[in-house]
User: Fold this.
Amino acid sequence: MKAALKLVDLTVSYDRHPAVHHVSVEIPAAEMTALVGPNGSGKSTLLKAILGLVRRVEGRIECSARRIAYLPQQAEIARSFPISVLDTVLLGRWSRFGAFGRADRSDVHDAHHAIQSVGLGGFERRPIDTLSVGQFQRVLFARLLLQDADLVLLDEPFAAIDTRTVTDLMDVIRRWRSEQRTVIAVLHDLDQVRRDFPNSLLLARELVAAGPTGAVLSPENLLRARAMAEAWDERADACEVRRPEAVVPSEAQRSRGTSSSRAA
Amino acid sequence: MHDLLIAPFVDFGFMKRALVACLCLSLGGSSIGVFLILRRMSLMGDALAHALLPGAALGFLLGGLSLPAMSLGGFLAGIATALVSGAIARFTSMREDASFAAAYLTALALGVLIVSLRGSAVDLMNILFGAILAVDDQAMFLVAGTTTLTLIGLAAIYRPLVVECFNPGFLAAMGVRGALYHYLFLGLAVLNLVAAFQALGTLMALGLMLLPAVAASFWSRELWSMTAIAAPMAFLSGAIGLLVSFHAGLPSGPVIVLVASLFFLGSLLFGSRASLRARLSHPVHLRG
Assistant:
């Protein structure tokens, strides 16, 4: 198994409380991995850490991806802004034309094609504030298509989306895998994860389990994840785990490996 | 009719210069205003305008009623306020609107205090409310230069600024520092406020930028068309305001801003979208 992404002892914290706590895991390349866990278990934070949007407190991230595409949660986009579907999708080519370059004919052509392939043909000129939640999610998927990334991070792509749209967008995700792209998606629908995602990562601030979905989403693991996520301690002491610099790295990884990724 | 509408601008140099200043302010300022509204920063723009005061007052204290000194002081004070409030919002949990409010109240008090140290009440009135009829060649070139810089600057940073407005997370994920464009935009906004402050005063500098932009939002819903509607409205407000103040002997700044308010009121009542008329006159819904 080739790893697209390797997290080594990753810790990210807000206000000194860890949101992602000493997570070490490898995520296989050219595979669909579901990122699962209760609310507040650090899933979104983990994605943001991979993108470098939040600061790592400890640990490191080894990423072989040349280009990363990211679908944020809906709340982070001002839907009332007057911009058309076509312009929104075209932004997917940002890495080619940047802030000042010009979108050429092939970019526009590809954008039209991407809009077609998410089932929104004819919507090109519509302003985004006239779209439904599901239609807007299709727009964002079209933008991801244009990004041509080898690592795609999706943060709750199917929250508040109807079945028909989920089916269509899952087709897009499966196409990415057949094109040898790595997909990591934050999901809450465990039935869907079991059905569609061969690989899973169960997070409860700490890593509960990672590996083939069937083994990861066992009842014991899910129970443990829920118990761990609820254990927020307002007066928690400083973390006992020593910094990696202070111990022999191989030993540190081995000792944590036995406690955290047994199911892997 | 000619005597009423055209003659004042032909016969009097100060009216001519005031008209040119209004034209420039409306060209550059209205696009700034549209962005301020879309970024939900209208009140922050107001806070910025007030924040120019202590800088302008300090310039006044050191250089007397000299335009370069007061403009430079105002510009520096505006930029400092924008940077400090931005930094406070970024590094503490205070929201940016709260930190802007705190900064501008401080600035306003400081400014009034500084002016009162040396100036008379007339000086204070001039700085607070402006004197567009006193616009000289120097001030006119400042305003025209600002407009040129604003239009070129906005064209240059247009794309990243738009994306920073509606989807800042995307820029960040692309590895672009959106904050840079945010501050460049704020810099242009401050520059326009400085240009407007000689004519309209620090308290109303924003009027000609914001009111037409708000009015335009009742007529259209695209960046370019909003600007295309706002700019002529701003210019008409300036021209009509100047004529009214000339014939009626009223102070020009407040009259200009009030005319802009009338455009706003008219748009609110009769605009083609989200206006009162639009709300009351469409009882029929479409079939699909």
Remarks:
- The CA atoms of residues 172 and 267 of chain B lie 37 Å apart.
- The interface with chain A takes residues 38, 156-157, 159-160, 162-163, 165-170, 172-176, 181, 221-223, 226 of chain B (CB under 8 Å).
- Chain B has one domain: 2-280.
